[in-house]
Design goal:
Blueprint lengths: L19 E11 L1 H7 L12 E9 L8 E4 L2 E2 L5 H4 L10 E2 L12 E5 L3 E3 L6 H4 L2 H13 L7 E5 L3 H12 L3 E5 L3 H9 L3 E2 L6 E6 L6 H7 L1 E9 L11 H6 L3 E4 L5 H11 L7 E6 L3 H9 L5 E5 L3
Parallel strand pairs: 8-9, 8-11, 9-10, 11-12, 12-13, 14-15
Antiparallel strand pairs: 1-2, 1-6, 1-15, 2-3, 3-7, 4-5
Helix pairs in contact: 4-5, 4-9
Bound molecules: zinc ion (2 copies).
């Protein structure tokens, strides 16, 4: 990926540095962030991709070799003020796999720090493991906001991240509705037993994950006074909202990004969630540009890359 263009390139297999592993990527996901990067977000150039499952081919940590792994995406220094305060995902010197100053996983091989790797237990299949990163991002909400059994929650956005968040919140038996645009996608939510929002308002918590800048205004209008707005979308350009509404209605706004992989693994252990309803198609890596086109199509579900072919 370079200057908003994607191309397929043959390059040498990267060599792992000390305390890093060479991972042979098996399955990778294309997420909205990757599409935004293509449109100029973070001015990224290099190999994109941060959602994957693969097998360690080489490592100076011999216990990792041959293990099936996923990886936390923030590559951190462990030394700055944020790291020392256990806020490593905000490391001042962080690089982010396939997003910020670091090549990603839409490739046959990737080099990843050993400390970022998590071994995937055998009972978790590749089609579940490839969703660990967005699942962790969904679980993050439970770490940031106290949600009670009486809370009324709305998810604005019927996309992939919306589905992950709905999976987490509905498993926890919270009263949940989803607002979306696509009949076919909303059916997936309905199949999970989640109510479709038909103009209801006064929610206690609204999670915005449309990935489009108009979503935040819609989300704001659905909250009760003193409600909590959780923002999950990132986009290349600026969103506009009426801040007076935020002041007058005393809305609490929480930005929410990466979550703990340990939380995500525990969630799958507990609920054995099936993410296959959101998978649209698996493309071979050699058809990567076609896969990105498919993922960019409005209303597309999850596009995966089979990096072994
Ligand atoms: Zn992602
Ligand atoms: Zn740091």
């Amino acid at each position: 990926m370079s200057n908003g263009k994607l191309s397929l390139k043959k390059i040498a297999v990267p060599q792992p540095k000390p305390h890093h592993s060479l991972v042979k990527i098996q399955l990778a996901g294309i997420c909205s962030t990757d599409i935004h990067l293509l449109h100029g977000y973070k001015k990224f150039s290099g190999i994109p991709g941060h959602e994957f499952v693969g097998v360690v081919a080489e490592s100076d940590d011999h216990s990792l070799v041959g293990k099936r792994v996923v990886a936390a995406i923030n590559i951190v220094c462990q030394n700055c003020d944020m790291c020392l305060r256990q806020m490593t995902s905000h490391c001042r010197k962080r690089r982010v796999l396939g997003i910020l100053n670091c090549d990603g996983v839409h490739a046959q091989y990737a080099v990843i720090p050993n400390e970022n790797l998590y071994v995937v237990p055998q009972h978790i299949c590749n089609e579940q493991a490839v969703f660990i990163e967005p699942l962790a991002a969904a679980c993050r909400i439970l770490r940031q906001v106290e949600i009670s059994s009486e809370s009324r929650i709305a998810i604005v956005g019927d996309g992939k991240l919306g589905f992950m968040i709905a999976t987490v919140l509905s498993a926890k038996k919270f009263a949940l509705q989803v607002l979306g645009k696509y009949t076919e996608k909303l059916k997936i939510f309905r199949d999970l037993g989640i109510a479709i929002c038909e103009g209801e308002r006064d929610f206690d918590v609204v999670v915005e994950c449309t990935g489009s800048k108009s979503g935040i205004t819609t989300a704001l209008q659905m909250l009760r006074p003193q409600g909590t707005l959780i923002l999950k979308s990132t986009y290349a350009d600026m969103a506009e909202i009426c801040l007076s509404d935020v002041v007058v209605n005393e809305i609490r706004i929480i930005g929410s990004r990466c979550g703990s992989f340990a939380d995500a693994f525990q969630f799958i252990d507990e609920y054995n969630s099936d993410f296959s309803p959101v998978i649209e198609k698996i493309y071979p890596l050699t058809e990567g540009t076609k896969a990105y086109e498919a993922a960019s199509t409005r209303g597309a579900k999850k596009i995966l890359l089979d990096c072994t072919s």
